[in-house]
Amino acid sequence: MTSLRKPVIVITGASRGIGLAVTRLLLKDFNARVVALSRSQTPELLALASDDLLIVPCDIASESALTDAIARAERMYKQIDGLILNAGILDPLGTIGSDAPISAWKNHFDVNFFSLVTALKAALPALRKSEMGGRVVFVSSGAAVKASTGWGPYSASKAAMNSLCRTMAEEEPSIVSVALRPGMVDTSMQSTLRANENSALADKDHDKFVKAYNEGKLVKPEDAGHVIAAMALRAEHALSGQFVSWDSDECKPYRSS
């Protein structure tokens, strides 16, 4: 870093789960300023209030709201050094032949994919100027590279995310863009999946989630979150365009231990 200024990281989906863990880590362990974009403001997020945290209520599916929120972040801090694209939804769960309307798929992509494009367009000018070298961390999923019954929208949107990451790496070589698989993290999403017995999920998939929970094998949000936070600040250029798992050898330098 060539500046004494604190780095500024913008994160979507910051109010709970892994997004909340990353926000906390950036503030307390990485001495960063954080712009937390979230549709809701949870007590846990509000409890982190400080001069280094700007909380902006934002519906990321709204192009104008998300663009304005990122512009506000740059006006406030005069810089953006990293962008963490974490917000996402799981619904609709169901097979392609189910009665889920196409509008539900479109809403899913508005949140899980098109918001990424909006955020990138809004943040790119500042990321290009970052004295640290701009970085983008796409919070992806193993679902991006495998098929599971009932996961059509989610798998497709995460695959599209990984493709967008690769395109960013080609088009913006000065910015490091990495897609990260955080694993099965102990969040509300996992609770939802465990509760979906006898639903559109295949029995083997439901059993996998229940077994991981019962055996204490779910990833702690702070563990995968540490990798995300560290990458948003210092991911190496060799990783740009790649899809990596938080517990892989490539991510060892970014883990807490």
Automatic annotation (TrEMBL):
SMART domains in the cross-refs: PKS_KR
InterPro entries in the cross-refs: KR_dom, NAD(P)-bd_dom_sf, Sc_DH/Rdtase_CS, SDR_fam
Keywords per UniProt: NADP, Oxidoreductase
Molecular-function GO term, any one: oxidoreductase activity, acting on NAD(P)H, oxygen as acceptor
Domain of life: Eukaryota
Residue ranges annotated for the Ketoreductase domain, each copy included: 7-188
UniProt keyword Isomerase present: no
Family from the record: Belongs to the short-chain dehydrogenases/reductases (SDR) family.
Protein known as: Ketoreductase domain-containing protein
